[in-house]
């Protein structure tokens, strides 16, 4: 296989262990923990060219490249990160982190609870976006990064990027929040509740302590993912790809898999349930529900953002109905009211919410142009 000059190539994950307790916003304490992360590119002598990538609900620290040459899939944002790509690793030092509570190596429900010697399971405390930001800040300290050139994320990752500028305003030069929102709508909270109930009512869930029973609540996790996946796509995109096409001629007059869209959703659900942890899914969706940086500022988002000297890029997609452009415009208005520099772009796309993972040309051009400015600003 000919090496791709625009790929970061073969990568490896790293593990940072922290012995200092982390006090969570909910009052619980994680006595010690580890974060899995990956880095791409080189940190410059001034340590000014570092970019943090924050992942969405089902993402991880594996953002770009491959672990083995024959890996079927690269990191989840490989299209965006690499030599000559918008997040150019010839210029930037890029860090991807698996959030606390995740299931890709960072301390989470499937990790061993030092107090019991058993997996945390149901005892793992609820975490919020601000807890992730505090944990990521400790990793930045470990890496010698005082200020990020940019913090970038899509969806839940975009919420983390925004939260960074509230919690550590002077540690972020640029915030790129993509296909995101300042808080969830009631409809979004409702979707998350249905997804969680699919898991909670799975007979093999065992109150979150299924590890000790040697089982996996796969049915519930599959249903949760199927529901979520529908909301990540647009009707236009689904219609164009699947329409009402049947797998075989004629109706079967039963409840099996007949339509191609049914087959696709069940495949996506099965694939996800094989690799993700149900308890982590519960935690991630709850963090989404709780996200509201204005809550501790009298409900005022401009007040929450007042201390931030960062510059902002807010990106939305026309067919994203889960995090609609109107929600991004709420963030933009708050930034303008707070007199913060902000660029807003609304990209035409048929991909719905998942568009932030795609390669629509206007989107890629925008990211490339903006990040070239960031590189020039930090001398990268």
Give an account of the 3D structure.
The chain is α/β, with parallel strands linked by helices and 380 residues long. The protein is built from ten helices and twelve strands. It has helices spanning 129-143, 156-167, 186-200, 218-232, 235-241, 260-275, 278-290, 301-305, 325-337, 361-378; strands spanning 14-18, 22-23, 29-30, 33-40, 50-54, 81-82, 87-88, 93-97, 150-154, 174-178, 311-317, 342-347. The strands form three sheets. The protein has an eight-stranded mixed sheet, sandwiched between helices. A two-stranded antiparallel sheet has the order 2-3. β9, α2 and β10 (174-178) form a beta-alpha-beta unit. The longest helix has 18 residues, at 361-378. The model has no long low-confidence stretch (mean pLDDT 96).
| Annotation, overall tally of beta strands | 12
**Which whole number gives the mean pLDDT?**
96
Shape: globular
| Low-pLDDT segments | none
- Helix count equals 10
- Please bin the fraction of helical residues: 25-40%
- Strand percentage, roughly? 5-15%
N→C terminal distance = 31 Å
As laid out across the biggest beta sheet, the strand order is: 1-4-8-5-9-10-11-12
Chart the SSEs and their pairings.
Layout: E1 14-18, E2 22-23, E3 29-30, E4 33-40, E5 50-54, E6 81-82, E7 87-88, E8 93-97, H1 129-143, E9 150-154, H2 156-167, E10 174-178, H3 186-200, H4 218-232, H5 235-241, H6 260-275, H7 278-290, H8 301-305, E11 311-317, H9 325-337, E12 342-347, H10 361-378
Parallel strand pairs: 5-8, 5-9, 6-7, 9-10, 10-11, 11-12
Antiparallel strand pairs: 1-4, 2-3, 4-8
